[in-house]
């Protein structure tokens, strides 16, 4: 029976390197030593662990091998390798690489055990490596300028798409909007997306933002403009997304002016369903006008008979008044007051038909008043006529009045009879000739046969015009 030694001696590994195959033979050697009181005898036992009488070969890790080769090479060789590798890249691959560098955040990977040069001077941006295949002299040639311009245009398109996606993401996360609503709205805001993109690019020059990525700067611009909360507020006030897009375009970056003017419109009793139409139809300069000028217009109309309770209704039906200057408003109001109207008649006229005050041009208004005077009406008669039926101002001379007068002449009604028609029943000059008057005349033979005789009697003539005015 073999006796076990009291002391266990460490194993000694002997490595034999073979240069060609980069292999290692693992040898296990054990030495048995006796105590000092015994005779010193060295029994060395060398054992080679094999499988099927062959040594186990271990191959180096491929990653460690490539890393070693990479560090053994000189910087010039590495640069030459990069230059030669760029020749293989096709234009389509360059565009994909450029899109990846613009969309993703460029950072240096740092983790325990990583080997990476962290000097900023030795790092080139991915965009610069795309143009390394040419020398500096060739790069400044005409062909390269065209190529550079094409790449810049593509880069701008990529930036625009990235900015639009950031805007949609902000609307979904902070505004709690749906995907469809966010997409439909952002697709109508191309100019605003460009504005955000340009402002985010300009922030790169500031010291406090130069280390931020483009995505972070674009998010910062959207947050500073506070546009997402404004969109939510406008939607809460029943403004549709096409009108929201138009308002943001009209603001030209000053989106806070939309909230300011909208709050003022609500203060004069404009209902929420009309806020969007008033802002979009009033004109582009409505967002640039001071609130003091708008208050002055409202005060002047109120002093001339338009009640404050009616002001929201009037502005909803005629938002063009908000873009008129104070002098123009006074001229328009004076146009009706000069025809003998008092404040009460003027106020009710504006309430009945708000367009009579601000929708038509002064030249068109003068033409219609002069045409009515050709029937023998005085200036005061026209004033009373417009106060009673202001919708006459909305009728066209060429399309409505002249065909009606020609038809009445054909029926045998004189100009004096037309004057009486205007005074007694001005609605006749507001209805459609072909759809209302002509069918009624020819469908009732009694009126058609006795029309001329009826026109000579006042009582029957009143019945005639009442018949004409029926819808």
TrEMBL record:
Record-level GO BP terms: DNA-templated transcription termination
Top-level taxon of the source organism: Eukaryota
Annotated segments matching region Disordered: 28-58
The keyword Protein transport is assigned to this record: no
SMART domains in the cross-refs: Mterf
Alphabetically ordered keywords of this record: Transcription, Transcription regulation, Transcription termination, Transit peptide
GO terms of molecular function: nucleic acid binding
Family of this protein: Belongs to the mTERF family.
Protein name: Mitochondrial transcription termination factor family protein
